[in-house]
UniProtKB/TrEMBL annotation:
Residues 48-95 form the Methyltransferase domain. The lineage of its organism: Bacteria, Bacillati, Bacillota, Bacilli, Bacillales. It comes from Pallidibacillus thermolactis. It comes from the Bacteria. This is SAM-dependent methyltransferase. Pfam families: Methyltransf_32. One of its GO terms (molecular function) is methyltransferase activity. Keywords: Methyltransferase, Transferase.
Length: 201
């Protein structure tokens, strides 16, 4: 799938470059391939009332694509200063072409574990952005929000690690709800899949 084509369609610049994060618990920038986002959106539709949080959003590709496809609310969390600035610049570029989305896109320059989960957040996206240590803290924050404001919520994990899955399966109230194998990639790499864990509130 032509990455340049989709960037142009969204009026953003999100292709990969060599950005090294200054904290060892956080991993270098790698955007979710558009082919993966297309398969996700074809299989897992969102609605305008949803609010998806992308932890380690990088330059914001997932945010802009899903907002474009579904008109949903999106929030990106990015601790790397350079990537945050790139994401903000992309937000301005995207809104210039899609002004109706201005109030539906938020990007925050903070550590993932410092994000205060909003009671409107109901979809949480992870593309292996950080260590399982940070992941556990983030999931704990999500669970606390769900306990205080009961609602159905999904955790969407692309390219899952055994550590992530073991924690979700054995230490949380989320349960595996569905999954999809990434076309043309799973045959070569078993991590090329998306798993969706659900909390029913």
């Amino acid at each position: 799938m032509d990455e340049k084509y989709y960037d142009a369609m969204l009026n953003v610049l999100t292709r990969e470059d060599r950005v090294i994060n200054p904290f060892f618990q956080y991993y270098p920038y790698e955007p979710t391939p558009y082919a993966v986002l297309k398969q996700l959106s074809d299989t897992y539709p969102l609605i305008p009332e949803d609010r998806l949080v992308d932890f380690g959003c990088g330059k914001g590709r997932t945010l802009f694509y899903l907002n474009y496809m579904f008109g949903c609310n999106v929030c990106g969390i990015e601790m790397n200063e350079k990537l945050y600035k790139d994401a903000e610049n992309n937000r301005k570029r995207y809104i210039k072409r899609h002004p109706h989305a201005a109030e539906k896109i938020e990007i925050l320059p903070i550590l993932a574990e410092k994000y205060e989960v909003d009671q409107k957040d109901n979809k949480f996206y992870f593309f292996h952005p950080f260590s399982v240590t940070v992941f556990k803290k983030v999931i704990t924050n999500i669970m606390q929000s769900l306990e205080h404001h009961p609602r159905q919520a999904d955790i969407i994990v692309y390219y899952p690690t055994e550590e992530y899955l073991c924690y979700l399966d054995h230490k949380t109230d989320f349960r595996l709800n569905s999954g999809m194998l990434i076309h043309g990639a799973y045959e070569k790499n078993k991590q090329e899949q998306i798993l969706i864990y659900r909390y029913d509130g």
